[in-house]
Amino acid sequence: MKTTELPRWATAFVLPVFNLVSALLVAALVIHLLGESPVESMGILINSAIINPEGLSYTLFYASTFIFTGLAVSIAMKAGLFNIGSEGQMYFGGLGLTLAMLALDGTLPGWLLIPAGMVGAALFGAAWAFIPGYLQARRGSHVVVTTIMFNFIAASLMNFIIVKYLIPEGQQNPASRVFAEAAAMPRLNTLFPVLGDTPLNISFLFAIAALVVYGVMVWRSSWGYQLRATGLNAHAAHYAGIRISRTIIVAMLVSGALAGLAAVNSIMGSTHYLSLNFPAGAGFVGIAIALMGRQHPVGIFLSAVLFGALIQGGFDLSLEKPNIPQETFIFIQGLIILFCGAMENFYAPALLKLINLGKKG
Q: Beta partners for 238?
């Protein structure tokens, strides 16, 4: 029988690698046109982001946020939903975290403040995702349209709340007051001094735990089966007795909660206050991570580390090579999204032909 579909190992590993290499080759051409050596530039980037312990610490710090936003997009994708509103959900999650800290950081110890902040972030992120989920499930509104519009609403609403209510009296910086020291996430350099004075904190451990829980829930639970069945064929899932509307709403609630938790690393782990535009595009990076990682825990982790390395290594490379501006690495991120998203099956026909020839041989 003729093979018409790629095996799982090819779609899960080979195609993403081909797409990533293609994006990097195009990026290497751009770096060459800028008058720099692609090989030397790649060496600087890898050394700064991976080999150097302090640089690796920053890479994992960025990856901690990206894991949560990648999971947020992935869990929705499993239900057949394209949630591109994790930027706004992360923003709103930051508000929930901040309100919890402003209310409690003067009375509670750190071991209670951190869970309180995480619960606030998850609840507010889930609440912001609930309305698009409800509209999709009950009113037929397309979740892509509603979630992207909710990003703009969240940005405007947060601007109003921060400027109107959260700026301390007598200050001009559009940000909340600094939280109490007890509300700071413990940093990992206290256990591993080699990491240097970096913001990497226990949010990274929470992100790894979230990957494990995601894998178990999606592939080893009845709810995960209902989720995947809805995403693969909603009509068949309905006739099998799965409540499609409830599955969609719950999937969006979980997605929003994960996006909200992404704010914990940025706020409680680094700045220790809420500021305007703190997500800095992390929600949109989560889309690329979910696509490139094929919604698999290992793939999401590796993709998050890759994007973290591009940010950390790109910053140092732009300092050492002034001809390569920082915006080049936004361009590289866009290339990765292009090849792993819109052109994810570009190599599929040729790869399928090679596999079939190998079987015949």
A: none
> What whole-number distance in Å separates Cα of residue 301 and Cα of residue 210?
11
Contact 305, 288 (CB under 8 A): no
Residue 109 three-state SS: coil
For residue 154, give both structure tokens: 């969240």
Burial 36-73 (b: 16+ CB within 10 A, else e): bebeebbebbeebbbebebbbbbbbbbbbbbbbbbbbb
Q: Is the pLDDT of residue 341 over 80?
A: no
Rounded CA gap, 320 and 249, in Å? 48
The Cβ of residue 135 has, within 10 Å, a number of other Cβ atoms equal to: 18
pTM above 0.90, yes or no: yes
Per-residue pLDDT for 9 more than 90? no
Q: Are 101 and 252 in contact (CB under 8 A)?
A: no
pLDDT of 3 = 40
What is the separation of C-alpha 67 from the centre of its chain, rounded to a whole number of angstroms?
5
Helix, strand, or coil here: 175? Answer: strand
244, burial (CB in 10 Å: exposed 0-12, middle 13-18, buried 19+): middle
H or E element: which one contains 142?
A: none
Q: Report which DSSP code applies to 81.
A: -
The rounded distance, in Å, linking the Cα atoms of 355 and 15 is 13
